[in-house]
Amino acid sequence: MGFRHATSADEILALVRLALATRGVPLGCLATPADRADEPAIRAVAATLGVPLLGISAEAMIAVDDRIVTRSARIAATRGVGSVAEAAALAGAGVGADLILPRIASAGATCALALRLESVTQAP
Fold first, then answer.
1. Cα gap 47→54, rounded to integer Å
2. Contact 93, 114 (CB under 8 A)
3. What is the rounded distance in angstroms from the CA atom of residue 118 to the CA atom of residue 98?
4. Which residue of 5, 13, 35, 90 has the lowest C-beta tally within 10 Å?
5. Strand 97-105 to 109-116 pairing
6. Which residues are within 8 A (CB) of 30 and not within 5 positions of it... i.e. 6 or more apart?
7. What pLDDT is stored for residue 30 in this prediction?
């Protein structure tokens, strides 16, 4: 998740729910840059959804930048990655994760989904 400081929990929550409905997958955690993980709005969204909130380091986000599909020159200049939402999703999902929903945006937030293949339960 990427979001502006003034973005409400309701706006972030609506965007997360839209992303999940678009892909039809459950949510395992919320991931956002470490310097935003203490913001009340994102903490409230994680609590409402009953999932852990991961604060992702800048280094971890930069490490997955080559796998990001959406590019913002402004974000690249300030954060070192093309998309905060995509970088946080990929880094938060862990090694072997794939981006399953590129960045979607509302007025004040961005959301992307990543899934690690090993996290999918397969029938015998």
1. 12
2. yes
3. 11
4. 5
5. antiparallel
6. 1, 16, 42, 45, 46, 49, 51, 52, 53, 54, 92
7. 98
What is the rounded distance in angstroms from the CA atom of residue 36 to the CA atom of residue 42?
8
Distance, CA of 49 to chain centre:
14
State the burial class of residue 55 (Cβ atoms within 10 Å of its Cβ: 0-12, 13-18, 19+). Answer: middle
Q: pLDDT tens-digit profile of 66-90?
A: 999 999 999 999 999 999 999 999 9
Q: Rounded distance, CA 67 to CA 61, Å?
A: 10
CA distances from 22 to 12, 18, 41, 62, 95 (A): 15, 6, 23, 27, 24
